[in-house]
Write a structure and sequence with these properties.
By secondary structure, the chain is an all-beta fold. The protein is built from one helix and ten strands; from the N terminus they run ββββββαββββ. The strands form three sheets. The protein has a four-stranded antiparallel beta sheet, with no helix packed on it.
């Protein structure tokens, strides 16, 4: 990444112990990267995928944090679910949701990462397909929601 303010380039992934190359790509370019997930809302880090896990990598460089835990080990591909289509960067202070796909079993699932614990909780995992998560127009518990609300 090029830091225009400092006038220098930073290798974001130098201290992260995985590769972010898309080994499944058949594009005619050398060393194609896996598409980045997105930047954090505060701009201090970027979320990257190594095909299996999602990593938080500091914008200044440094060791990354594996957000999804054991995707590589268990051969489960984790992909972030965008619940709010209007978001401007990823808010790391709210739960993040991930779709899961077993590389060899083809099982699918859904998981949630709680910001307080940093743990990934599997919400569903089965030989089934799951629909997409959607954000409601009105939050649950809002006085204007429900059949009597206006």
């Amino acid at each position: 990444m090029y830091d225009a303010a400092a006038g220098r380039s930073v290798n974001l992934t130098e201290k992260v112990p995985v590769s972010f190359l898309d080994l499944d790509s058949d594009r005619d370019i050398e060393s194609p990267p896996v598409r980045p997930v997105d930047w954090s809302a505060d701009g201090r880090s970027v979320l990257l995928s190594d095909r299996f896990d999602v990593w938080q990598v500091p914008a200044a460089g440094g060791p990354g944090v594996n957000f999804t835990g054991n995707g590589q080990k268990d051969q489960i591909r984790c992909r972030r679910v965008v619940v709010d289509r209007d978001e401007m960067g990823i808010d790391l202070n709210v739960p993040l949701y991930f779709e899961m796909l077993g590389e060899w079993t083809r099982k699918t699932g859904l998981a949630r990462r709680a910001p307080a614990t940093g743990k990934l909780e599997v919400l569903a995992w089965a030989d089934a397909g799951f629909g997409h998560l959607l954000k409601t127009a009105v939050a649950a518990g809002d006085s204007a929601s429900g059949p009597e609300g206006g």
